[in-house]
Structure formats: C-alpha cells, structure tokens
Here is the input.
Amino acid sequence: MRLFRERGYARTTMRAIAQEAGVAVGNAYYYFGSKDHLIQEFYADTQIEHRAAAAPVLTREREFAARLAGVLHAGIDVLTPYHSFAASFFKTAAEPTSPMSPFSAESSAPREASIALFGEVLEGSTARVDAELRPALPELLWLAYMGVVLYWVHDRSPEQIRTRKLIDGAVPLVDRLVGLSRLRVLRPVTRQVLDLIRTLRH
Amino acid sequence: MRLFRERGYARTTMRAIAQEAGVAVGNAYYYFGSKDHLIQEFYADTQIEHRAAAAPVLTREREFAARLAGVLHAGIDVLTPYHSFAASFFKTAAEPTSPMSPFSAESSAPREASIALFGEVLEGSTARVDAELRPALPELLWLAYMGVVLYWVHDRSPEQIRTRKLIDGAVPLVDRLVGLSRLRVLRPVTRQVLDLIRTLRH
DNA sequence: GTCTATAGCAAGATAGAC
DNA sequence: GTCTATCTTGCTATAGAC
Here is the structure.
C-alpha cells in the first residue's frame, strides 16, 4: 500500500513489491493471484477506517440528512490520501469481470459492511420512510455512495472540492425524495421505482 | 475490430493486429499512438451506426417517451455484437486520465455527436419542458445513456435482457420527471438540481 | 513522409526445481 | 512455501528501403 501511494499503481512493479516485502516474485504470486488482487486489501482497510470516521456523526446527529452527509463526507475523508492512487487503479475495479469490482463476489465482505453502515444512517435517524422503500434504502444509499466515489475519482478540482459540493447539493435532494416517498400520490411512482430495482438486481 | 471481437481486447496482441493488417508492428504504431487508441475507432463507428439505427424512430415517433426509448434501444442494438469485447476493454475507457474515456477531450467528436442525437430526441418531440431545463436536457439524456451503457457492460443476463428492462422502466420515469419540471411547485427543486449540475461540470 | 525488419526493454505472470 | 529462470506482450529504438 505504501508503494502504491508513493508511486501510483502502474509504476509500482511486482518486483519492487516483492523486494520490499523481502520475498521472491514467485512467492508474492503464491499469496496474491495477481497484482490486482492486492487491491482487495485497500477495500478492506478503507472500509474499516470509514466506519471509524463515521462514528462521531452517527452518535451525535439524529437528522437523516445530517447523518447521511456526515457519513458520505467521512468516506471521502478516508479516501482523500489515496486520490491519485485510486485514479490509477480505478480501471481495474471498473472492469465487469474483475474480482476487484465493488459489485463482485470477492468484494462482498467490505460491500456488506458498507451497506450496513448506511443502514445505521437510516436506523438511527428520525426520518420517517415509506414502509416499502425502507428495506431497500440502505443498498440504494450505498449505490449513491458508489456514485459519489465515481465522481470523486474523476474529480480534478483542487482538493476534490467539487465532490464536497456534490454531497452537499445531493443530500438535501435525497432527503426530500425520501420524505416525499410517504405521500399517497407518489406511492405508485415509489412502487414503480422499487419494482424496477428489483428487476435489475442480480 | 474483428480480432477484438473474436478474442477480446487483452488477448489480441499488437503483433497479431499488425500481421492481420499486413503491416509491421512499427507501422501500426505510426498510425495509432497505442493499443488503446484503436478504441477510438470503435467509438466513431458505433456512434455513426447509432445515428443510422435511430433514424426510423426519430422520423416516425413524436412522443418524447417513445423517441427516447427508441434511441436508447437503438444504441444497445448497435452495441450488442460487441458486448464481450466492450466488457474486456471497458477498464481502459473507465480510467479517468485515459484519452479513451468517453468524457475526455479526445472523445469529444463522437460525444458531441451523441449529445446532438439526444437533442434531436427532444426537439422533434411534442414534449413541453421547463425553459430552464431544456438547454441542459440533451447532455443529461446523454449522461443517462452512459448510465445505461454502464449497466449494459455489466449485464450478464441472457442477451442483456435486463438492460432492455432498465430502458423500458426508466424511460417513463424520466418522461414523468421532465413533464413535472413545468409545475410551479417543483420549480425550486428543478432550479436546485440545475444549479448543482452547473457546479459539478468541468 | 511512409514503411519494413529486427532487436530489445519492462513488467506481469508462470514453470518447475528444491 | 519459496526460489530462480523463463515466457509473454505492450511498447520503443534503430537502421534502412522507397
């Protein structure tokens, strides 16, 4: 991880990693199927850090919007030191067949943990949510978080300030939408959306 | 392109491409800066095919929803023969710094053409759209199309039927949203969304 | 300016000995 | 489990033909 941060993904060779770890290249491949597989460590580490960084907000805030914004900002806080590294390895994670995809079976442990974190955002809040929407919401919030991360990876503004603005701009909209989901007039739309999501899931 | 389709991106070597084209490797690099640059041809080709495949729908239909669904389906129709190839090279396109990104300057010609196609979807339709939203809409529709393509690349259902369901499910929602944008009560939300988008643009 | 042939580097990955 | 040696392939460099 240190070499990746210092030199970027592509410019860190397996030879260098093996040498730094004091093992032979072949031995590195005995433990990690490919260079890409080293990235799983990154997911696991940052997920744990994310949970820790989100803890203060989750104990302090009760408002749904404040909790969601806090957790999203905490996620970006944790990722910030890895911004250039993330940009350089993102291609690997984006590949559909790659085990490094955040949607893959290999990534399910950190993914489930992350979805649970967004479950906490909802459960600990005073938000009143449509009963049908509620069970699907943690995963939807996680998906929105993936969208934020996608934007962040591409964000070349200084200190990724645009990503911060995205969070601050989008959270009130999400909050409003979630609140509206309880209106009887919007019930059909809510159901339509949920049906669509169910169809699209794997 | 044939070799890519047959063997996938990674397993098609520059040596094989050069041989098949009857030129030396060095000559292939004379015309294409890197293996990745060959993908630009793919963008350019499929964009032109997309425009052609969309033509019947655009002359026949006047309803916004029908036009949008038709153009989205036409896009997937054109891409379908390349599904496994697209999955194998997608990592390259997804990299933020890559000239192969659909958002990059190098891809601006096919991108602009594609956005113009979604402009046609709107202009030729009977849809009545909020005046502030209207100029931003073609690019937003293109962005939605990129979302559909993103889903399609990951779609492993037989014949990517889920992507078809995504289009059929999402289009009525988009249609309804666009229609609602004219309601006075929703004006602030519309403006909020447009402000956010303006902030996030590069 | 366009092209060939060939040699060679760098780095991810693998084979097979121990 | 661990090593060394080797393979593969994207890419570069060079020398030269026309």
